[in-house]
Design a protein that fits this description.
The complex is a heterodimer.
Chain A (H helix, E strand, L loop, with lengths): L7 E15 L8 E16 L3 E5 L6 H8 L7 E6 L2 E2 H5 L4 H10 E4 L13 H12 L7 H11 L16 H13 L5 E5 L7 H18 L2 E6 L2 H7 L2 E6 L2 E7 H6 L4 H8 L51 E2 L5 E2 L2 H7 L1
Parallel strand pairs in A: 3-8, 3-9, 6-7, 7-8
Antiparallel strand pairs in A: 1-2, 1-4, 4-5, 9-10, 10-12, 11-12
Chain B lengths: L4 E14 L2 E14 L3 E5 L6 H8 L7 E10 L2 E2 L5 H7 L4 E4 L3 H4 L6 H12 L4 H14 L5 H4 L9 H13 L5 E5 L7 H18 L2 E6 L2 H7 L2 E6 L2 E7 H6 L4 H9 L38 H5 L5 E4 L2 E3 L21
Parallel strand pairs in B: 3-8, 3-9, 6-7, 7-8
Antiparallel strand pairs in B: 1-2, 1-4, 4-5, 9-10, 10-12, 11-12
Classes of the chains: A alpha/beta, B alpha/beta.
């Protein structure tokens, strides 16, 4: 069933993922609790847009990405791709349809050392999608392989080599080429530059931007590094303990953050300029356990604002502060006015 | 005011004798640390930062060997000392914080044991006094409930707590010099801000010198007084922090500054350093940066550039440092945010 929407490419609605925790023992294992990895998040991405999902480790960024690709099934919630419910397809067991859907979405993993099979040559790795999806006739596969290598800035002779012969940056290029082999429309990049050196990081970020312009792809960019996010993303959502706390256009978010967590996060990034001294907001304590998240607002135990406005009693909802800038903090909203 | 030199490394060479050949990890490094200052040691992975630090306290892992050079600490050459003498210096005179707090702590001993071991080795105290001191240290690094937390095992602590514990252990005997090897690399940004603030405060409180090893230009901009930039086992440039950021002379330093996505500057495209870090078994001839340097000429491929003082306190190892006129991407003292 088609849903009416205005050019939203991917829509995520109220996505929830709770991982059960079992008690120890072999017999009589029972569920003793849940890890609230993702707890009701909604966002949408327009076609051709780069959407950033930012947060510290354990906030549910990667889980969100895995659910969108159905690598994990959601506890509840919906994901629509071009208006179509993707779980209806994934649950239908119609292999053809599932493959068709998979071709539209591809994933670039965080660690290029772990996500390439060491026993396959680069040619095997990049051509495997051709075999699985059989969208490229046999005689054209080699041709396409060299085109892909060229696209990501690798040479033809690299095709016969094995992953261990490459540096981290080159491996990430191979991963990107593999993802592009099926001509996806949505590329989910999960911390694609986190494990790379700074000088190589810039190469990969520029490559991602070039590819987006050339191939008109939509990106979901996941990272904990706000400076790369600012560089590459059009819109950004900040996650904390399984919830989105703020979402806005990139410049808007970085220039006038509303949520106290976003403010603290921005102020704690070291700026490579010794004369720029910004007032640091040092958050007390650490991120609480997602097994027993705090009541009310999840950020409330570490928040710099006073705990009025019922922060402990009610969990604040995302509200629009104007111009598509959403924040889940009534105090932050009031300060703006 | 003449600053007293605490540590002087002269022409240090540490090689690793592997089956594939000799890896020249550190190849003629000169570094100085003055009393009471923080030196930032910056470079990408494989530039020899960590091996330099390990050489200082004489724990280069096999098959590594210090081949040449002098490490003069408080007027004495550490390389001429016996293992017994070095053991009295390690932990007492020179503290060390390892990169990964999770692997540098022993999982089968509780924190109290691990802290007390260091204290009892270097100070003539009873068990009771040592425990009291350990608890004091925990208070110093701002761990809540030190009396209870001290009986925990490493796996019961979070990454940030473990790193605080590692700081406490390094400081336990009030060293004159603290070597911190990427102390915040594995931590989230908000926790990184906490640890950096803590280390800055403690350094002042205890009046020690610090060598902070990192690849993050943002961290050194905030913490360091002087910076040494390393590339492929050699020093490229040494100067005070402001000079490095606003008037850098070595093309690699400049490239490093331009390649980092920054919150302060918004660029459409990141400047890219072409290529990757060279293989240290057969490093490039002459200047090791020449294959990636846009200013390289024939002299650079033939002769190793010496580290020369081009103005008081500003050392550069580049044949063309005085010829080429390149501006820092940051501008001179211009604050963008």
């Amino acid at each position: 069933m088609e849903r009416l929407l205005d050019k939203q490419y991917l829509e995520v609605e109220n996505l929830v993922k709770h991982f059960p925790i079992s008690s120890r023992g072999i017999l009589l294992r029972k569920k003793v609790g849940f890890i609230h990895a993702v707890d009701g998040i909604s966002f949408s991405i327009k076609k051709g847009e780069t959407f950033g999902l930012v947060g510290e480790s354990g906030c549910g960024k990667t889980t969100t990405a895995r659910i969108i690709l159905n690598l994990d099934s959601p506890t509840s919630g919906m994901v629509y791709l071009e208006g179509n419910d993707i779980y209806k397809v994934f649950n239908s067991k119609d292999k053809k349809e599932i493959l068709k859907l998979r071709r539209k979405m591809q994933y670039v993993f965080q660690d290029p050392y772990a996500s390439l099979d060491p026993r396959m040559t680069v040619a095997d790795i990049i051509m495997e999608p051709f075999i699985i999806h059989s969208h490229v006739p046999k005689e054209k596969r080699l041709d396409r392989l060299y085109k892909l290598l060229d696209l990501v800035g690798l040479e033809d002779y690299h095709a016969e080599r094995y992953p261990h012969e490459f540096s981290g940056g080159q491996r990430q290029r191979i991963c990107i080429a593999r993802a592009l082999a099926v001509e996806p429309q949505l590329l989910i990049a999960d911390e694609p530059v986190a494990s790379l050196d700074v000088s190589v990081r810039a190469q990969i970020l520029n490559l991602l931007q070039e590819l987006q312009q050339k191939l008109r792809m939509t990106y979901l960019y996941i990272s904990h590094d706000l400076s790369t996010v600012k560089h590459i993303c059009h819109r950004v959502a900040v996650m904390y303990l399984g919830k989105i706390v703020e979402m806005a256009e990139t410049d808007e978010l970085f220039d006038s953050p509303l949520h106290p967590y976003t403010k603290a996060l921005l102020s704690s990034i070291p700026i490579p300029d010794p004369e720029t001294k910004i007032p640091r907001i040092i958050l007390p304590g650490e991120v609480p356990s997602p097994i027993n998240p705090p009541e009310g607002c999840r950020f409330q135990p570490r928040c710099i604002y006073s705990k009025e406005h019922g922060c402990i009693e009610n969990s604040p909802k995302l509200m629009d502060a104007g111009g598509g800038h959403l924040a889940a903090c009534p105090i932050g909203m009031n300060q703006r006015k | 005011m003449v600053k007293k030199k605490l540590l002087r490394i002269e022409h240090l060479k540490t090689y690793f004798y592997t089956w594939a050949g000799i890896v020249k990890a550190v190849d003629g490094v000169d570094i100085e640390v003055n009393e009471g200052e923080t030196l930032g040691l910056v470079g990408e992975s494989g530039s020899g930062k960590s091996v330099t630090a390990l050489s200082i306290i004489g724990i280069v892992p096999s098959p590594g060997k210090i081949v040449e050079g002098k490490i003069i600490y408080k007027g004495e050459n550490l390389l001429e000392k016996t293992e017994n003498e070095l053991q009295k210096i390690r932990g007492k005179e020179i503290g060390y914080i390892f990169q990964d707090p999770a692997t540098s702590l022993n999982p089968v001993f509780n924190i109290a044991d691990q802290l007390m071991e260091v204290i009892r080795r270097h100070q003539n105290v009873t068990k009771k006094e040592a425990l009291q001191k350990a608890i004091e240290l925990f208070r110093l690094v701002e761990i809540p409930d030190p009396e209870i937390k001290i009986w925990n095992y490493p796996h019961q602590l979070s990454g940030g707590m473990k790193q605080r514990m590692a700081v406490a252990r390094a400081l336990s005997c009030q060293p004159s010099l603290l070597l911190a090897d990427e102390p915040t690399t594995n931590l989230d940004v908000t926790i990184q801000a906490q640890i950096l603030q803590l280390m800055k405060g403690l350094k002042q409180k205890l009046g020690m010198s610090m060598v902070l090893i990192t690849h993050d230009m943002g961290v050194v901009a905030d913490v360091a007084d002087r910076i040494t930039v390393m590339y492929a086992g050699r020093v490229c440039e040494t100067a005070d922090t402001k000079t490095i950021f606003y008037k850098p002379k070595h093309p690699y330093t400049i490239a490093l500054l331009t390649a980092v996505p920054s919150l302060a500057l918004r660029r459409d495209k990141l400047a890219v350093i072409p290529g990757t870090i060279p293989n240290l078994i057969e490093p490039p001839s002459g200047c090791r940066f020449h294959p990636r340097c846009e200013y390289a000429k024939s002299l650079c491929t033939e002769k190793i550039p010496p580290l020369e003082e081009i103005e008081p306190g500003h050392f550069v190892a580049c044949h063309r440092a005085l010829e080429i006129d390149i501006k820092s991407p940051l501008g001179v003292g211009k604050t963008a945010r």
